[in-house]
Write a structure and sequence with these properties.
Outer membrane lipoprotein wza fold like; wza like fold; elongated
Length: 249
């Protein structure tokens, strides 16, 4: 992989996760992802609860005290400002956890606080699709979007893609990267196959990386080798050479 392209993917990871880049994408088929957690893991059965992020817009509603209802923006420091209790840490909590914390704080001032926290708008529902796709893109995650749907929204697979070895890089505990191997070749209805075993639903901040096929790597090596060979001898052929134009998994 070219250094510029590798730096681009690492930069996207930093934007999505808000931490220093921690994902290294290699060129070889066995080096698609190196993460600080060991090995690839299978798809999670149930997505984790959404955690509030800076930039989210929240509705704070009081059942018995509607005069205290507010719509607030989570600041860059992760806090929100409310009446009576001032600044409260919101980022990193689930809406239910923030609800519990606000109920505890307002119980010191109100007789019977019944509070509901709603996420009106979220800035964290984004994913990145890169690698061998038509248009590497930063996409808005819609409910129910899967890895295959994200690839299609990013222009589909290139001829040099390896759909059977797609990697979904997911944000885990302590902002660690968790790589998940996804076989979209075996679950691609466009190929007349839909086993239901490969595609997975995506979560906010996921990175979908489509690596090159083995044939594409071989073609690249042969093309570069022949080019260097004839440049070294001062010969120009005026055409390219490809050992197999049909990519395989």
């Amino acid at each position: 992989m070219k250094p510029a392209r590798r730096s681009h993917i690492l930069g996207i990871a930093a934007v999505l996760y808000g931490v220093a880049p921690f994902v290294v994408l290699g060129c070889g088929p066995q080096q698609a992802v190196v993460a600080p957690v060991g090995g690839l893991v299978g798809p999670t059965q149930a997505p984790p609860e959404y955690r509030i992020q800076p930039g989210d817009q929240l509705d704070i509603k009081f059942f018995y005290n509607p005069e205290l209802n507010e719509t607030v923006l989570v600041r860059s420091d992760g806090k929100i400002s409310l009446q009576i209790v001032d600044d409260i840490q919101a980022a990193g909590l689930t809406p239910a956890q923030l609800d519990q914390e606000l109920t505890r704080l307002y119980a010191q001032e109100l007789q019977k606080p019944v509070i509901t926290v709603l996420v009106r708008a979220s800035t964290g529902h984004r994913i990145y699709v890169g690698g061998e796709v038509g248009t590497p893109s930063l996409l808005t995650l819609v409910p129910g979007m899967t890895a295959l749907q994200a690839v299609i929204n990013a222009g589909g697979f290139r001829e040099t893609a390896r759909p059977g070895a797609v990697i979904v890089i997911r944000k885990g505990p302590d902002n660690r990267a968790i790589p998940i191997r996804v076989d979209l070749e075996a679950d691609n209805p466009l190929n007349g196959e839909a086993s239901g075993q490969g595609d997975i639903p995506l979560e906010p901040s996921d990175i979908v990386y489509v690596p090159k096929s083995l044939i594409a790597h071989a073609n690249l090596f042969v093309n570069q080798y022949i080019e260097r060979l004839f440049l070294y001898r001062g010969i120009s052929l005026g055409f390219g050479y490809e050992i197999n134009p049909t990519p395989t998994r």
